[in-house]
Design a protein that fits this description.
- The chain has 491 residues and is α/β, with parallel strands linked by helices.
- The chain folds into 3 domains: 272 residues, Rossmann fold; 147 residues, Isoleucyl-tRNA Synthetase, Domain 1; 55 residues, no CATH class.
- 45% of the residues lie in helices and 14% in strands.
- Helix 13 runs antiparallel to helix 14.
Length: 491
């Protein structure tokens, strides 16, 4: 590989060469889901983005510790500092324990990602399992003068922090605008009178009597704020400074901005690289309950949704996500999914042929240059759409060599096979969904070709041609050669 990995760093607003703090070790953290409902399409994008990065770094011989958290406490209904806990509300409505709700939807999240061939992280901590670490961090922030207790709750003092630090650096917000705008809007929320400033955010909240998820702390019986959990868990498992912090663009403010401020307030350094994946829209519109256009991942797999014309496989969804750069908005539609389905099958068909291609003394394509191109594209901030286009370029060659219209030398064939499989399966994380179907298909086709062979041996040209033409109409091309007949599926 002649080039090195470059990542677009949200905090510097530019692409930078990736330089781990302690190579070959890499620490990276992804903000996982709040598990109060079944996973939807939006949950799939960040997970696939980080899965590709995880796979590529591992492929590049880095030793990666990948932490992806589960939020099972502290995320309130309005994403601010008031209201019910999202999980607690579901638990009350169904008369079950909150951890039953969290476990049910954590399982659903895992099952959906497993179907999409997303590798599990190295560590998957839960917020509820790290209350002690969060309390300790809040105490440290208070001691350092950047937080205060009020009626049993603890709030981060944004204005105090902004005196010596740039609150808003990550998200591009200006503290003056926050004070003038967002702060005034939040004054309408109940409980804001506890705060010195409306922009201050909760590190610990005193629980009301009806709140069912609460723990003892030095300040009150209560629960941690939404932002503090990621600071505490990333510190515990990745240290005071680590390489990569990632999440959806919707977490940029206030979650990641607040997380960065509170971590910095107790001696932790900002992660070297912040990565943010963009949102998925549905037929050009943002996913919203009011529009009734939210699609669950399992609904996509079953086809059971009013916006879906058919069911789509997990690999079709993964291929669809890889077709757009992770930092761009991606629009979901049946047409886009159907195109992804065809593209995925085209790659799988080419991959199945790479090992058995006939070889020649020379090659009529430059495989080494093609291989270097793939690495250069992936090193350019994980440009998966360009990688897929380059794999399609090779798929065309593979079909041409298979049909004896192009030539490939033995050494180039080996490089093509290795590189094509590495990128398609090991790095992009695609997997064959129809291995069993292929086996059954081979059995049926071998029987049909044997019947056609017998017809030809008996000079029954009418039957032989009828079989060939019928298969062609069905999308199966029969190829006659000196050593017998073979077939291929036309995608």
């Amino acid at each position: 590989m002649s080039s090195r990995l470059h990542i677009y760093n949200t905090i510097t607003k530019q692409s930078e060469e990736f330089k781990p703090i302690e190579p070959p070790f890499v620490g990276m953290y992804l903000c996982g889901p709040t598990v109060y409902g079944d996973p939807h399409l939006g949950h799939s994008r960040g997970a696939v983005m980080m899965d590709v990065l995880f796979r590529y770094l591992t492929h590049s011989d880095y030793k990666v510790r990948y932490v992806r958290n589960i939020t099972d406490v502290g995320h309130l209904l309005n994403d601010a500092d008031e209201g019910e806990d999202k999980i607690g509300k579901i638990a009350k409505a169904n008369k079950v324990e909150p951890m039953e709700v969290a476990q049910q939807y954590t399982n659903a999240y895992h099952q959906a990602l497993q179907k999409m061939n997303v590798l599990p992280p190295s560590i998957e901590p839960r917020a509820s399992g790290h209350i002690i670490e969060q309390i300790e961090m809040v105490s440290e922030i208070i001691e350092n003068g950047f937080a205060y207790e009020s009626n049993g709750s603890v709030y981060f003092d944004v204005l105090k922090y902004a005196e010596t630090n740039d609150y808003g650096k990550l998200s591009g917000r200006k503290i003056e605008d926050l004070i003038a705008g967002a702060g005034e809007e939040r004054r309408s929320l109940t409980g804001q009178e506890e705060k010195k400033n409306p922009n201050d955010f909760a590190l610990w909240k005193k629980a009301t009597p009806e709140h069912i998820m609460k723990w003892n702390s030095p300040w009150s019986e209560g629960f941690p704020g939404w932002h503090i959990e990621c600071s505490a868990m990333s510190d515990k498992y990745l240290g005071k400074q680590f390489d990569i912090h990632a999440g959806g663009m919707d977490l940029l403010f206030p979650h990641h901005e607040s997380e960065m401020a509170q971590s910095h307030s107790c001696g932790r350094s900002t992660p070297n690289y912040w990565m943010h994946n963009n949102m998925i829209t549905i037929n050009g519109q943002k996913m919203a309950k009011s529009l009734n256009n939210g699609v669950l991942i399992e609904e996509l797999f079953s086809g059971d949704h009013h916006l879906l014309e058919q069911a789509y496989t997990p690999m079709t969804l993964r291929f669809f996500l890889l077709q757009a750069h992770y930092r761009s908005t991606q629009d979901f539609s049946n047409e886009a999914l159907q195109a992804a389905e065809k593209g995925y099958k085209r790659l799988m068909n080419a991959a199945s042929k790479t090992e058995t291609l006939p070889t020649s003394d020379v090659s009529t394509m430059n495989i080494a240059e093609w291989s270097e191109k793939l690495y250069a594209q992936l090193n350019n901030d994980l440009a998966t759409p360009q990688v897929i286009a380059t794999l399609f370029e090779a798929a065309k060659w593979i079909n041409e060599v298979d049909a004896k219209k192009m030539k490939i030398a033995a050494a180039d064939k080996e490089l093509l096979h290795t590189t094509f499989h590495n990128f398609t399966f090991r790095i992009l994380g695609l997997a064959s969904e129809d291995a069993g179907d292929n086996e059954a298909m081979d059995g049926v086709m071998n029987m049909v070709l044997d019947i056609r062979k017998s017809a030809k041996e008996n000079k029954d040209w009418t039957t032989a041609d009828k079989i060939r033409d019928g298969l062609k109409e069905a999308g199966v091309e029969v190829m006659d050669g000196k050593e017998g007949s073979t077939y291929k599926l036309n995608q």
